[in-house]
Specification:
The protein is an alpha/beta fold. The chain has a single domain, classed as TIM Barrel, CATH 3.20.20. The chain has eleven helices and eight strands. The chain has an eight-stranded parallel beta barrel with strand order 1-2-3-4-5-6-7-8, surrounded by seven helices. Strand 3, helix 4 and strand 4 form a beta-alpha-beta unit. The protein is globular and about 80 Å long. Bound molecules: erythose-4-phosphate. The site of erythose-4-phosphate has 12 residues, from strand 6 and helix 7.
Length: 230
C-alpha cells in the first residue's frame, strides 16, 4: 500500500483516487486548519466522514488533540466511530515529553480494537517503541529529520530492519515530504508507505522531456493522418 495523500483537500483526493494511485489519506490539525475547515469538531467530523467515504476501504488518519488522556480516549473512540476506515492518529508523546500517550496507544489497539497511527516521530527508536506498544502505523517525519541534519533514509532502513527482525506488524509511514524524490527514495529505503502532498505526486508524473516527446508523437500522428488522406 505504498502511497497515501497527506491532505484534507477533497478535490485533490478525488483527483488522485480517480487515477487509482492512492491507498490512503493522512491529515493532522495543521493540514485541516490550512485547508480552511471551520465549525470546530463538527467541521472535522464532516470533512473526515466525506474523505473516509470517498476512499473506503482505504484508511484515513485523523489526529486526536485532547489535552489529557481521558478526553483523548473519548475523542479517539468518537473518531473511530465515524467510519470503519478511520485510523486514529496520536502523537508519540505530549508537548513536554509527557509519556501517557504511549499507554493510550496500547489501550486503543489492545482493548478497544482501534487502529492507531503514532505520529510526529523523528527517529527509528521512537517508532520502534510505538510499534512495540501495538501501533498499526508508525509515522516518521522524513522531511523534518532531513532538516535536522541527519538522513531520513538511514532511520527508515534501521527501523525496517528491526521491525522485520522482531516480527512487529506496524507499517512504516514516512511523511513530511519536501521534494519529489522523497517518495521513491523513502520507499526504496524500506518505508511501507509514503504519505505525500499532492503537488509532489504531480511532480513525479510530469516530465519536461515526456512533454516534448508527446508533442512529437502528436505532430507526427497528425502528419501521418494527412499523408494517408492525401
Ligand atoms: C504525516 O502524517 C503528517 O501529516 C505530515 O507529513 C507532517 O508533515 P510536515 O512536516 O509537513 O508538517
Amino acid at each position: 500500500m505504498p502511497i497515501f495523500l497527506d491532505t484534507g483537500n477533497l478535490a485533490e483526493i478525488e483527483k488522485f483516487h480517480r487515477m487509482g494511485v492512492l491507498r490512503g489519506v493522512t491529515t493532522n490539525p495543521t493540514i485541516l486548519f490550512k485547508e480552511g475547515v471551520t465549525g470546530g469538531m463538527k467541521g472535522i467530523e464532516d470533512r473526515s466522514r466525506l474523505i473516509a467515504k470517498l476512499i473506503a476501504p482505504y484508511p484515513l488518519s485523523v489526529e486526536v488533540t485532547a489535552p489529557d488522556r481521558a478526553t483523548a480516549l473519548a475523542q479517539a473512540r468518537t473518531f473511530a466511530g465515524w467510519a470503519d476506515n478511520i485510523v486514529v492518529k496520536v502523537t508519540v508523546h505530549g508537548p513536554e515529553g509527557e509519556l501517557e500517550n504511549m499507554e493510550l496507544i496500547h489501550e486503543l489497539e489492545t482493548r478497544h480494537d482501534i487502529r492507531v497511527n503514532v505520529t510526529a516521530m523523528m527517529s527509528a527508536q521512537q517508532c520502534f517503541l510505538a510499534a512495540m506498544a501495538g501501533a498499526s502505523y508508525v509515522s516518521l517525519f522524513g522531511g523534518r529529520v532531513n532538516n535536522m541534519g541527519y538522513n531520513a533514509c538511514d532511520e527508515i532502513r534501521t527501523l525496517r530492519t528491526v521491525l522485520d527482525r522482531f516480527g512487529l506488524r506496524a507499517q512504516i509511514i514516512v511523511g513530511s515530504t519536501r521534494e519529489v524524490l522523497n517518495v521513491i527514495e523513502w520507499l526504496e529505503a524500506g518505508a511501507h508507505i509514503v504519505t505525500a502532498v499532492p503537488s509532489l505526486l504531480e511532480g513525479m508524473l510530469v516530465h519536461p522531456y515526456t512533454k516534448e516527446t508527446v508533442r512529437m508523437f502528436l505532430a507526427d500522428g497528425a502528419r501521418l493522418e494527412a499523408r494517408l488522406k492525401g
